[in-house]
Hints:
By secondary structure, the chain is mainly beta. The chain has strands at 17-20, 27-34, 38-53, 61-67.
Amino acid sequence: MTDITTAPVEIPGYRAGTWVLDPSHSEVGFTVRHMMISKVRGHFGIKSATLIAPENPLDAKVEAHVDAAS
């Protein structure tokens, strides 16, 4: 097995930090096919969401909590 190491990625304008998304202006949307005939669209309202962008962009992550009843 070969050990693969990943060098940090350089992205112009990238800024490390933590950001909290505004739940009133954010949503999670999705589209699914119904019986291969039509598309059904839906969305969940976001209760909270945080974008964590460390120095290495490959380690970035988003944590979100949605209202499944929405």
